[in-house]
Design a protein that fits this description.
The chain is mainly alpha-helical and 307 residues long. 37% of the residues lie in helices and 6% in strands.
Length: 307
């Protein structure tokens, strides 16, 4: 037997061996490709090598940079999309605002903005102090001249006349001259009515809001009264009475949220903070909480006692 006879392979066997070789090559290729895909997956996933192993870290299809929410005064009737997005509203909420305005809708008061679909109570409470409705969007009936001793809004008078109510008698009230002022504290409606443009209606509103606040700490707080005539502010000063203090470390949640500057979520945040961190020594401690903006702390500061 020759060496050639020893290594001779029949044609059918050669074909089988060739087929096995092709299968092996294909298998090696599949294994290699699979290893490459595990490093960078087809859906955009990244991999990290840890302790000789491979840990897959999913990468989201859409990576949108986080928007920085800013709070500033805005008029929902005129604010553009850039401003509305900066306030933290979602793009679909901005589109709804544009559709509402395009259909002739008008935001006549702050409460109208609360009807925005998808707006939560927390979001509205945060935005409420910054909503400013221009006088241009008030009903034209407010332009109707009123008696100099009657500060009741024209719309309210129109409703009274439509129901057939008789015009009430109004006694003459002497008004102070330009340069003179009356004190916001104490809460005296008879003093308020001495101011030009202030009658019984706004005198009651000023007194009621002052009682809720615990007294006025600034004349600018009159701007927080809906429809208050800005021209009347020059006739007011603070007066000598000090504001009532909130014992922030002792009051319950229900007692805290009665103040106009503290909503339910802020009251709950204060109570939780006291329980976890102990007594509050300065309002700046609350700046670490999401519910308290710099503006909210600034307004609340004159009314807080740490005793």
């Amino acid at each position: 037997m020759t060496l050639r006879d020893l290594f001779y392979v029949r044609k059918s066997d050669r074909q089988s061996m060739l087929a096995l070789l092709v299968v092996a090559v294909v298998a090696v290729g599949v294994v290699w490709l699979t290893g490459r895909q595990s490093e960078t997956s087809a859906d955009g996933a990244d991999t990290l090598n840890t302790d000789g192993g491979r840990q897959q870290v999913a990468r989201r299809y859409y990576q949108v940079e986080g928007r920085r929410v800013e709070l500033f005064r805005f008029d929902p009737n005129t604010a553009d999309s850039t401003q509305l997005l900066r306030l933290g509203l979602q793009p679909w909420q901005v589109r709804n605002i544009y559709k509402y305005r395009a259909a002739g809708g008008i935001y006549r008061c702050k409460e109208d903005f609360a009807r925005l679909y998808g707006l939560t109570v927390k979001q509205y409470r945060e935005l409420e102090p910054y909503i400013t409705i221009s006088a241009d969007y008030q009903p034209a009936a407010t332009l109707v001249a009123a008696s100099p001793y009657d500060d009741e809004p024209a719309v309210a008078r129109h409703e009274s006349f439509r129901r057939g109510d008789s015009l009430p008698h109004r006694a003459y009230q002497e008004k102070i001259a330009l340069g003179e002022t009356v004190g916001l504290n104490p809460l005296d409606t008879s003093e308020y009515k001495k101011v030009p443009g202030i009658g019984s209606y706004f005198a009651r509103r000023i007194a009621d809001y002052g009682r809720r606040l615990g007294g006025y700490a600034s004349v600018d707080q009159l701007d927080e009264i809906v429809d208050f005539p800005a021209s009347a502010k020059q006739y007011f000063d603070i007066g000598g009475q000090h504001v009532a203090k909130l014992h922030i470390n002792r009051l319950s949640l229900d007692e805290l949220k009665r103040h106009p500057y503290i909503n339910y979520y802020q009251a709950r945040a204060i109570v939780d903070y006291r329980r976890q961190q102990g007594p509050i020594r300065d309002l700046n401690e609350l700046s670490l909480l999401d519910d308290f903006t710099d503006e909210a702390i600034r307004r609340l500061r004159p009314y807080v006692s740490y005793e």
